[in-house]
Write a structure and sequence with these properties.
The chain is of the alpha/beta class. It is 30% helix and 26% strand.
Length: 200
């Protein structure tokens, strides 16, 4: 039987999160919003980062992309925020939340995302790309197919999302968003952490 891990993702909208309670109910991994653009930081991120680790979850952090801004500056802001909250440990996950174009054409959005991902990857961790079907199909994710897909598809059954190009498969499926964003990963904890930070 295939192993399944369940996770949640949160941002400042949730306020203080009881990570111990979620861990006790079977949540194995979490993503917390860290940053947005070049200067915004989620005030709850340091607490979320610490509490996820204390609850023995696989820890994930994400950056909300603002494609009108500089991708390298946004990546640096994101990584600095994680370092200030305690830093990355082996197996920690990171993601680029790519869901707004800021009014730019798809080719510019995709170029922003590729540059952000390449910069972060050089720091020792390959980012997930979080997006949704219509946004990807519009061309905003061109060239990102080699990065693991975190697909928002709450209208589809758990573990059975429709996968948009340029991807051929999904890695994490966000299958519910009320009252909390819920996610599923088909695999073991070891398989999930292999996709995370490697300091070598």
């Amino acid at each position: 039987m295939k192993r399944v891990l369940y996770g949640i993702d949160v941002s400042n909208w949730q306020g203080p999160v009881d990570w111990d309670e979620h861990a006790g109910s079977g949540v194995a991994f979490g993503f917390a919003k860290a940053t947005e653009g070049v200067d915004w930081t989620d005030k709850w991120f340091p607490r979320n980062w610490r509490c996820m680790r204390e609850s023995w979850m696989v820890c994930g952090a994400y950056h909300f992309a603002r494609p009108k801004g500089d991708p390298v500056e946004q990546a640096r802001h994101f990584l600095h925020t994680i370092r200030a909250a305690g830093g990355l440990r082996r197996g920690d996950l990171i993601a680029l939340d790519l869901e707004t174009s800021d009014g730019l054409r798809p080719e510019f959005v995709a170029r922003f995302a590729r540059r952000w991902c390449r910069y972060v990857e050089r720091q020792g961790v390959r980012p997930f790309v979080y997006t949704f079907q219509s946004f990807a199909r519009a061309g905003n994710c061109a060239g990102l197919g080699d990065y693991p897909l975190w697909i928002a598809s709450p209208a589809k059954p758990q573990g059975d999302p429709v996968v948009p190009g340029p991807w051929r498969g999904w890695t994490i499926h966000q299958y519910d968003n009320a009252p909390l964003d819920r996610n599923v990963f088909h695999g073991s904890r070891e398989q999930l952490t292999r996709l995370g930070y490697d300091p070598r």
